[in-house]
Write a structure and sequence with these properties.
Helices cover 70% and strands 1% of the residues. By secondary structure, the protein is an all-alpha fold. The mean pLDDT is 92.
Length: 298
């Protein structure tokens, strides 16, 4: 079997041109905002989330095109909108993303805000026009709205992440960090796996297995990000490192230390792979991806 890094690379080679094909540029000066959105969307990225949509749907015999690709594109657009806004001066104030100037550095702050808004809006249009039943499109829309939103989703997680920079020392740090990890990063990874299960018409047991897998790898992914912020290679990662410590932000590393954070991440990866045992075949790429999430250096 092809190793997971090669699988991700081959997927990216097919999926990124598909993403680029979704842009129909207007002729007027308003095209600048779409150019900014495409710049951030197609300038690098692991495509982890659309890959998860595809691999989870593939467990049920669903090919990449057309539906998983379109839902994966929707998710990647929404994820990229969050990165554009996350990088803004009012948020994390970053100059570098995926080895390139951040959107606001390249196009200006106002255009970057609009580009993020445009990607978010287009994400839901792609779900609405996906070649799926109306019932499934409604399920996917409701789920993404919730997991990207301000109750227990990505926006709530980002709010907690900002709060963590100035949080009182006497609060429950462990709970705060766990909530940030599950919402800010984990929510969209969870959506990717659950969307693939919905497209594949998984039964209840299969759906719960993929949801559990997603929750585990989602938290592990963010823990590894926290670890790499301390001991990663900025040139490989294509972004500024060491900012968590400078900002005094609560993370798994600041709370538990490097070694225990690594142990927690490894335990989550083991549990994630255990959850896949409900599938008699076809889940190997998901198990390999879990290991990759733990061992990655970018």
């Amino acid at each position: 079997m092809t190793d997971i890094k090669t699988q991700l690379k081959e997927f990216n080679q097919v999926f990124t041109p598909y993403l680029e094909s979704l842009f129909n540029f207007p002729q007027g000066p308003e095209k600048k905002v779409m150019e900014a959105g495409r710049y951030s969307l197609t300038n690098g990225g692991k495509r982890l989330r659309p890959f998860l949509v595809y691999r989870c749907a593939a467990l049920f015999g669903v090919p990449l095109f057309p539906a998983p690709a379109q839902i994966g594109a929707s998710l990647e657009m929404l994820h990229t909108y969050s990165l554009i806004h996350d990088d803004l001066p009012a948020m994390d104030n970053d100059d570098l993303r995926r080895g390139h100037p951040t959107c606001h550095k390249q196009y200006g702050e106002a255009t970057a805000i609009l580009a993020g808004d445009g990607l978010l809006t287009e994400a839901f249009r792609l779900i609405a026009t996906a070649p799926l039943s109306a019932e499934i499109r409604c399920q996917l829309t409701e789920k993404l709205s919730f997991l990207a939103g301000w109750q227990q989703g990505m926006i709530a997680g980002q709010c907690l992440d900002l709060y963590a920079e100035t949080a009182p020392k006497d609060i429950n740090q462990e709970k705060l960090i766990a909530d940030i990890e599950e919402m800010k990063t984990g929510a969209l990874i969870r959506y990717a796996c659950e969307a693939g299960a919905i497209i594949g018409k998984a039964n209840e047991k299969q759906f719960e297995a993929l949801s559990t897998y997603a929750r585990k790898i989602g938290t592990a992914f963010q823990i590894v990000d926290d670890i790499l912020d301390v001991e990663g290679d900025a040139a490989l990662m294509g972004k500024t490192l060491g900012k968590d410590a400078v900002q005094g932000k609560a993370t798994f590393v600041s709370c538990y230390g490097l070694e225990q954070a690594k142990e927690i991440a490894q335990k989550l990866i083991t549990e994630a792979k255990e959850s896949l045992k409900v599938f008699s075949f076809g889940a190997e790429p998901l198990a390999e991806l879990a290991d990759y999430i733990y061992s990655r250096n970018i």
